[in-house]
């Protein structure tokens, strides 16, 4: 269904039952991406850093918010390198690009270079967030997807199979949505992505598919366009 996608991963999802990384989670993720790539799909990845640190959280314990956000950006680069290692272990050619220059570790983010890597069949992993404080990795995903002209952001959630009207663990009557508009998501206060990321997706007509990454094969199903999770788009 899609030619070019951006996969958004949370840092917590990489941890599994471990503290920082679960080797089994990384291996399974790499194998699914390899299968998807074999279909001819161009894949970019944005990863969070929540398995190490969250900038917003550390600001609550007295660390300056700006410093905390930079700490979080560095955590996303660690995760990007871990995903790169897992992919290359199963024979997938990758490149890591970062918004914070560190030439001994990764390439700087250059959109034309990222575009060329994708055309050559490489998986491109974006680390370092946007490179500026006060922006989430959701906003990073929306920004990078817009820059590389991805058709959809595949938002792989840790144990959540879509968007609900309320927390299904608390409210047994919570309704699961199959399709939403970004405006409905914002108006109903559904905290899927922040308003900055939603606005960017609307402006650039980038769809969002929210699904559970813990179910084996779901990344491949999402890329094939099978009906899983919740689709959020500019129009209803």
Enumerate the spans where pLDDT stays under 50 for 5 or more consecutive residues.
Answer: none
Task: Describe the oligomeric state of these chains in a short phrase.
Answer: single chain
Biggest sheet character: 9 strands, mixed
How many helices in DSSP terms?
Answer: 9
Rg to the nearest angstrom? 17 Å
CATH topology value:
Carbamate kinase
Mean pLDDT: 92
Relative helix content: 25-40%
Instruction: Give the amount of beta strand, in percent.
Output: 15-25%
Following the backbone from N to C, one meets helices and strands in this order, namely: EHHEHHEEHEHEEEEHHEHE
Strand line-up of the largest beta sheet: 4-3-5-2-1-6-10-11-9
How many DSSP E strands? 11
How would you describe this structure to a colleague?
- It is built from nine helices and eleven strands.
- It has helices at residues 11-15, 23-37, 55-59, 65-89, 111-119, 137-148, 182-187, 195-203, 218-224; strands at 4-9, 42-47, 94-98, 107-108, 123-127, 152-157, 163-164, 176-177, 179-181, 207-212, 230-233.
- The strands form two sheets. A nine-stranded mixed beta sheet has the order 4-3-5-2-1-6-10-11-9, with helices on both faces. Strands 7-8 form a two-stranded antiparallel sheet.
- The chain has one domain (4-233): Acetylglutamate kinase-like (Carbamate kinase), CATH 3.40.1160.10.
- The longest helix has 25 residues, at 65-89.
- It is globular.
- It has 236 residues and is an alpha/beta fold.
- α2 (23-37) packs parallel to α9.
- The model has no long low-confidence stretch (mean pLDDT 92).
